[in-house]
Amino acid sequence: MVSEPILNTIKAARRIVVFSGAGLSAESGIPTFRDDLVGLWQQYDPEELASSEAFAKDPELVWGWYEWRRSRLAQAQPNAGHIAIAQWQQHYPLTIVTQNVDNLHERAGSYSVIHMHGDLNKAYCSQCKHPHPLVAAPANLPPEGARIQPPQCELCQNWVRPGVVWFGESLIDADLRAAIYAAENCDLVLAIGTSGVVQPAALIPYWAKEKGAIVIQINPNESAIDVVSDFNVRQSAAKVLPFIVQAMGYN
Ligand code: OAD
């Protein structure tokens, strides 16, 4: 399933960065970002739901979409890929940098995950940025297309917004710095389930490569990461990762 040269490269690595994208969570039933507008949500463009302009125009529509996604995430489970990474991290200090806004790495048992694009289960005030703790996600999936009123900030009473990075927004500085540091100080990047088209996250393999690291990609399809990767494993993450972890003797 994974060739000897790839396994030997992984075995020889001393500082590994796992760089994950939506493909890792696909087999948990969380669609990849570009396939996520299902049912009644299909009538909207992602930019109509995932931007500060959209939120300013219709906060209840945007909050409704995020509550729907949060609720669906609560019903999903980490898959064999997330679990293999968590097992690996128990034996070896992997640095995990994810573009995913889900918490499936953490629910599988991983720690210190750098979320470059934020976290669906976090929220903060759209004006004063004060963090707002969210109650548990709705147990039943809200109807698709349902508008839900966002909570109000306890300090300034303005709308609370999802704690994710939207189109047109900069990444959180601390997360970006942590990701750059990890990339520039590793000797291997495992790019898993990402199309590699969204900047600046997609630069992680490039930053690492410039400092001499090797890049291994796990993705059943071609992607923009192909040009920077030394090895491509064209298979699903949930199949390949348990195999690698077993080959390392870490399960
Ligand atoms: P994409 O939806 O762009 O790409 C998902 C990738 O996963 C594709 O290359 C698929 O071929 C691959 N894939 C699908 N199933 C897989 C499987 N079972 N195993 C491994 N790979 C699989 O998702 P991202 O690259 O994560 O940004 O998207 C990056 C960012 O674009 C997201 O974080 C989001 C979006 O704009 C923000 O939310 C800011």
Q: How far apart are the first and last residues' alpha carbons, in Å?
A: 17 Å
Number of domains: 2
Can you name the CATH architecture of the largest domain? 3-Layer(aba) Sandwich
Determine the structural class based on helices, strands and strand pairing.
alpha/beta
- Large-scale geometry: globular
User: Fraction of residues in helices?
Assistant: 25-40%
CATH topology-level fold name of the largest domain: Rossmann fold
Q: How many strand units?
A: 8
Determine the number of helices (DSSP H or I, runs of at least 4 residues): 10
Largest sheet report:
6 strands, parallel
Give the percentage of residues in beta strands.
5-15%
Specify the CATH class of the largest domain. Alpha Beta
CATH superfamily of the largest domain: TPP-binding domain
Topology pattern, helix = H, strand = E:
HEHHHHHEHEEEHEHEEH
Q: What is the residue-averaged pLDDT?
A: 94
Put the structure in a nutshell.
With 251 residues, this protein is of the alpha/beta class. It is 35% helix and 15% strand. The protein has two domains: 1-29 and 78-117 and 171-251, 3-Layer(aba) Sandwich (Rossmann fold), CATH 3.40.50; 31-75 and 123-164, SIR2/SIRT2 'Small Domain', CATH 3.30.1600.10.
Task: Please provide a written account of the structure.
With 251 residues, the protein is an alpha/beta fold. The protein folds into two domains: 1-29 and 78-117 and 171-251, TPP-binding domain (Rossmann fold), CATH 3.40.50.1220; 31-75 and 123-164, SIR2/SIRT2 'Small Domain', CATH 3.30.1600. The chain is built from ten helices and eight strands. It has helices at 4-12, 22-26, 46-49, 52-57, 59-75, 80-91, 104-108, 173-184, 204-210, 237-248, and strands at 16-20, 95-98, 114-115, 118-125, 160-164, 188-192, 214-218, 231-233. The strands form two sheets. Strands 3-2-1-6-7-8 form a six-stranded parallel β-sheet, sandwiched between helices. Helix 6 runs parallel beside helix 10 and helix 8 (173-184) runs parallel beside helix 9 (204-210). The chain is globular and about 55 Å long. The mean pLDDT is 94. The structure holds 2'-O-acetyl adenosine-5-diphosphoribose. 2'-O-acetyl adenosine-5-diphosphoribose is lined by residues 21-23, 26-27, 32-34, 99, 117, 164-165, 193-195, 198, 218-221, 223, 236-237.
